[in-house]
Amino acid sequence: MTADTLAAPRSPQSRDPHIRKKGPNLEKWGWLYMRISGVVLVVLIFGHLFSNLMVGDGIHALDWGFVAGKLANPFWQVWDILMLWLALIHGANGMRTIVNDYVTGETVRKTLVWAIFVAAGLLIVLGTLVVFAFDPCNGVTTDSAFWEACQAL
Hints:
Elements: H1 26-53, H2 64-72, H3 74-102, H4 106-133, H5 147-152
Helix pairs in contact: 1-3, 3-4
């Protein structure tokens, strides 16, 4: 068989080390994740935009108090965490796909993929900490314009 022809669909696989024979098909699961997370992200993002920009006073209501109130609500905490996690993992997987498609050097490719996942992991940890550990009154002093609002909490 020459390089210009394809093997029959049911013929045994070659001994090429780049062809996976056993174990989970991670590329398939990554492909499915991209499709499912993309649909869920569209719902989450448009829900986020609608609740922030269209409900109530719209964009004029966006201030420190609005964000503090929203991050104090467990529903919006879960909403924001889902959006954060899905978006970062979706983006990191997309970048991994681009690196796998265009970077030919094995060492450079592995280093870039590693760096992408480290950056995504770090952003996920930091974003999760912000959402769950957010204290709107941290560092507010008696001189601050927010002092009275924090006293009411």
